[in-house]
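Report of the visiting student (M.T.), summer placement. My assignment was to run the structure pipeline on a short list of targets and document each run. The first record concerns Sugar phosphate isomerase/epimerase.
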Amino acid sequence: MARLGIGLQLYTLRDDMEKDMEGTLRYVAELGYEGVEFAGYYGMPAEKLKQLLDELGLKAIGSHVSLASLTDNLQGEIDYLKTLGAQYIICPYVMPEQRETSEQWEEIISRCEGFAAEAKKQGLQFLYHNHDFEFHLKIKDEFVFDAMYANTGDKAINVEMDVCWVQFAGQDPLAYIAKYAGRLPLVHFKDFSKDEEGKIITLELGLGQVDLKMVIEAAEKAGAEWLVVEQDHCQKPPLTSVANSLNWVKENYTGVRQ
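After the run finished, the structure tokens were exported:
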């Protein structure tokens, strides 16, 4: 089994990125993260960002791109990622008003299959990143989550599985990782607990309910390429939280680059 790369979803550091993108990326590299997944480029031209990443030794894994931008500017998004040398273009979220019915989901899946086919033509992979709501509705007796990945071939949407949200939805992330072996290049590596109302609280790695060590083992067996650390909302300064989470990885994953 190949070792997993350790990346960071920069949405965790969105406020720091907006204030000082270059300084934030330098900090991420100094911590020891090997790659980054973007959630916006904060006005930096692709060529300049590529030069910075090369200087820092950071791999551009891919980027979360809104459904609106995928629809309105797919070629521009693909061109930017190709300049960075990234491989993955990822739909991260579907707005509530767009996902109220199975018919709406069928239309979204069809659109995403079109994005996937075009991305494949141009040497990229199109992935979909889940939350919990893909397990709240079914299409023809299967969860929307599974319907999203039902097609194979040129129109195949591949998987960026957020294990935190899978578990929060009441499903088994280990079983789902195994189910999508070979189609799961990226695993969002995230921990959580619940508040008194049952709402999610995302935590630094090792402080919550996810069996992260078993996730690592399952991800390796499934042929995943990257564990992508993410924390939606941090209880400490986000720069501290991403450092603490990486320290957990270093202490608990023998494959990590020291």
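The first helix runs from residue 14 to 19. The longest strand covers residues 59-64. I thank the supervising group for their guidance throughout the placement.
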